[in-house]
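Here is an idea for our session: we take a single protein and study its fold together. Start from the sequence, derive the backbone structure tokens from it, and show both lines together. Once you have written the record down, we can walk along the chain together:
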Amino acid sequence: MKTIAGIEERIRDGSAVVLTAAELKKRIREGERLTPEDVDVVTCGTCGVMSGTAAVLSVPVAQPGTFFRADTVSLNGVPAFPGPCPNERLGLVDLVVYGTAHSGQRYGGGHLIADLAAGKDVDVQVTAGGREISRTVTIEDCTVARLLTTRSAFKNYTAYVNREPSEVQTIFSAAGMRGPCVEASVSGCGEINPIENDPSLRFIRAGTRVLVNGAPGFVMGEGTRSTPEKPNIMAFADIREMNPRYCGGFVTSAGPECITSIAAAIPVLDDAGLSALSVLDEAIALPVADISDRRPFAAATYGDVWQGTDRRVTYDPTSCLFCEPCVAGGLCPTGAFVTGKGIDTALCVSCGACAASCRGGAVSGALGTITVGGRRVPITLRQSDRNRAEALCEDLRQRILDRGFPVR
């Protein structure tokens, strides 16, 4: 019987076999018959829009005695909630800012969190007793800067379509979801998602170490809206240690949303654990629901999303019509696509919004289709980034091998 202590000993002596989820799935698809003795740890990850994200900050904004207590606070125009501690006359503001809060149609809490993680300047505006106090800060000025998720890394999500002829403004669409059933929006990283590989939360539970946006953190327990069929988790980590590559903002037709990433290391102790880790996209259910009532009425799988599809969108400048205005550039949820210049890979999450909207066909990407009522409906928006999730799995694998991340 394998034990976590035994696995940790093999990590220390350099004999442990640590695979990313993508590596394990590849070997399974190739027909390799693995046993628990063949692998010790599998690193799993997910990256995508996760609305249940917030930051807790403590920000010095003035000298002690300058004001009694803050009435309102905003950071780069994003509204925050001061408190719960009033920090009376200390010149400090404790605050909570939601990942879904926003200062306009193109900037929100997710963008703010990524800017903080990148060490960028942030403009803080405070009103207190009729006074206005302004200060520019960076993450280094914050005495506390933690990110927490209220629900993240859902085991699986739901695909959405609009069965009505009218367009619907929704967080699941970049431009407004058209109907009836002419396009689909999907979320979830499928077979590499941590909870998809530990569906009973045997290892991913309160106290488990995880990476949150690339920073070492912990699971607090199950998240809001967690159910036995679709579990999810709460987690937290220090924003100072986060990598802005794994977080950010994502603009939808209903306003800005927040991109968050979670990765976990799952030890392989026995056949049951390996069996759970052997799940493949084709076997993972993806319910299809109408955006109007969110009730599933059809079914697909994550194989429709991630198998035989393009993981990245591509831009061919020779095919660009240089439309004015550029629809693809205007709709890009992360601001990654610029007409004539191409795609900024540091920002692009390969969601496919540009490919679906480019009138000249300069941007392309096969995002897959799902079947609804006997017809194939094209996926036009992916709100999860499998590329970044796989990169995060590799980051975690290297940390484990370098003995910089405990398995438990």
In short: Helices lie at 4-13, 21-29, 109-117, 271-277, 303-306, 327-331, 353-357, 386-401.
